[in-house]
Amino acid sequence: MLSVNRQFFYPVLRLHLRPLGGLAVALGFVICWSSGFVGSRLGVELDTPALALYAWRFALATLLVGGWWCLRAQRQGRQAVAPRDLAVDALVGSLTVGGYLLAMLLAIEQGVSAGLASLIGALQPLAAIALAGWWLGERSRPLQWLGMLVATLGAGLSVLDDMQGVGGAPAWSYGLPILAVVTVTLGSVMAARRPTTLPLEARLTAQLGAATVVFFAAAWGLDEGRVAPPPLTTDSVMVLVWLIVLATFGGYGFFNASLQRFGVGRSAALIALTPAATLGWTALMFGELPGWLGMIGMALGLLGAIGALLAGRRPTQPGQGTATVARSVRPHVGRSGPRRRAPAVRHAPRTW
Q1: What is the mean pLDDT of each run of 10 residues along the chain (352 residues)?
Q2: Are 64 and 58 in contact (CB under 8 A)?
Q3: Distance set, CA 335 to CA 65, 329, 332, 340, 341 (Å)
Q4: How far apart are CA 234 and CA 47, in angstroms?
Q5: Which one of 42, 89, 233, 319 has the fewest CB atoms closer than 10 angstroms to its CB?
Q6: Rounded distance between C-alpha atoms, residue 196 and residue 82, angstroms
Q7: Could you tell me the pTM of the whole model?
């Protein structure tokens, strides 16, 4: 009787918990991804130099992930790692992690609000769509371009509202989040063109190590060589824990979980929700609220981004791909000579 109940209960329990698991992944992804912008704001408010704080943040994160890599290598057996793959991931990390976060941090240091920086950062999947059409040969639909136009208009309205706010950011500093979007888009497309076969912990070690070098170089060149570790005060330790646990490991972990569960398109749509989450963070923690023009811009940016990402989804009919492959590999009855092989399936590049 007990075994019968288990055979009935466990599948039913899995069926009911599956939507809850997807909801947990989606919420965790949006919260942890938006926490990085809040962490930048927290780091700017400390007495310690923000660039040095970020450099040591990535140094500690690299040591932790490198230790995880070594432990897994000892348990599973050492595998040969190609230096080319490490170099490619390091170059990708210097753009997608180092260059992206450096430009965002400098913008927030100049007075750009964290909510606006998050809104401009959420346009990155749209920039990847545009660049993929030119570099990777992917076609974009008219509704995608309309969504991009609406999202860009919303970002422009939010910039105008932020320039009238209390941040006092100079006009040129609003180009820094755009530069961040450009660098992370180039890095993501480069990763799509030159994929590596490294395990996750090895890729993350290479990318975080490259980001460490970027921030130490930036602290040395832009902050008068102030690269000393931050003092171990309560505030600095809390900010480091926030940035390493929530923003780095939480954001990257939920990012991969979202890709596995939802795919690239829906994960990019979740990115479009991070400005609203960042706005909630900053309103509760710092009392930052945009004006009416910024609220309109935020709404337009969210609607345009989500609309463009959803317009890019291409539903496939059940059995369509299987039937196509079956027709191509059907044996040629009564014929002699070489047979045609089925063309290799070409996977869509995973741009981000």
Answers
A1: 45 52 87 91 90 96 94 78 89 93 93 86 72 57 72 75 70 91 85 81 93 96 90 92 94 83 72 82 81 80 73 50 37 40 39 41
A2: no
A3: 58, 14, 6, 12, 15
A4: 12
A5: 319
A6: 9
A7: 0.76
